[in-house]
Amino acid sequence: MASHSTPPPHPRTGPGPRAGSGTAVTPIAFIQAMALALRRGGIPATEALARAQIAPALLRKPGARVSAAQMEAFSACAMQALDDEALGWFSRRLPWGSYGMLLRASISSPDLGIALQRWCRHHGLLTDDVQLSLQRHGPTAQLRITERRVPGELRELCLVTLLRNLHGVACWLVDSRIPLEPVMFPFGAPPHADAYPHMFPGPVQFGAAEAGFDFDARYLALPLRRDERALQHLLKRALPLTVLPYRRDRLQVRRVRQLLRAEPAAPHSADAVAARLHVSVRTLHRQLAEEDSSLQALKDEARREHALTLLHRSERPIKQVALAVGFASEKSFARAFKAWTGQTPSQAREQAIEQTPGDGRPRQGLSSWPGGPSA
After folding, report:
1. Fewest Cβ atoms closer than 10 Å to its Cβ: which of 2, 168, 268, 368?
2. pLDDT tens for residues 83-132?
3. Which of 95, 137, 116 is closest to 4 using CA atoms?
């Protein structure tokens, strides 16, 4: 991105995939749509193509791809030429600086949830051709785009860019990678559908009722980690800051812990956990290490927690408890349990009985125990 005041999507303005600034994976269809917007504004695409170093003949090749850097250069030139950060999608222009204004209006929020609510509300002041909304349904946050008036030829580019902007701004504000599940589009899979996984970190669904994405609602409570100085730096040099995807995920430990607690006896290989969280094994290990944890430590924690629950709340024999938490033998379970808690399984059960009321049975609903993890 050139120096301008449009905040990046994830990670850049426009829908260019995150495979690096020099890798040609961005569909030419997005360049074609922007070239159409320029023609409708009475402006030839010649200068934008030259600045982006895109051969004009490439526009006539449906399956062609360009790099993220080329996408950046073309979109910046087109926005400046049209003085429209929406590139003709809406019935009124969004003059240069419109999205920068939205970001400034959101950056003073105490947490991500309020910041995104402000973004959605203030976007409605810029245009009523689309309506952005954020809702929370239990553990899931849902971002949706309701369309009113969007030109059909520019519809895909509009919806993709709006969602990339929202996701990128959210990630940037809390300095965290936010996985999406799923990302939805209200049109059929385009010929370049293989580019969508590069653009969005999560499964993509076509043919949905409306555009939007879901994500873990716990991200909404994360405090913002950006200030005016960071904002100024971003707006001046967005491309160098954002051509690579966010590496850190500030909720990854919690996400892994939740998965393991749901199935404490399962083997949970690194490959299986990474697949469930839509990251590579290498990324999973790195993100957990960034939070001073590891997959093995979290697996031990989940098994210890489940074992203590069974010992405290049931009368199962120790051997059955061992099997229930994934150990092949009572002996190996006892050895691991003592390493975790400093007690044998029998000692832990006896201690729980001593702490129960006078009926001599383990108390129900016990929520904490010696050596156990905090909730």
Report:
1. 368
2. 999 999 999 999 988 988 899 999 999 999 999 999 999 999 999 999 99
3. 95
pLDDT at residue 116, rounded to an integer: 97
Looking up tokens 């370049």 gives 192
- Residue 286 pLDDT more than 80? yes
271 HSE (CA, 13 A, CB side): 0
d(CA 322, CA 102): 55
> Which positions ≥6 away from 276 have C-beta within 8 Å?
259
**Residue 180 reports pLDDT greater than 80:** yes
pTM over 0.85: no
All residues at 6 or more sequence positions from 261 whose CB lies less than 8 Å from its CB, including other chains? 302, 305, 306
pLDDT in tens, 324-337: 888 888 888 889 88
For residues 351 and 354, what is the distance between their CA atoms, to the nearest angstrom? 5
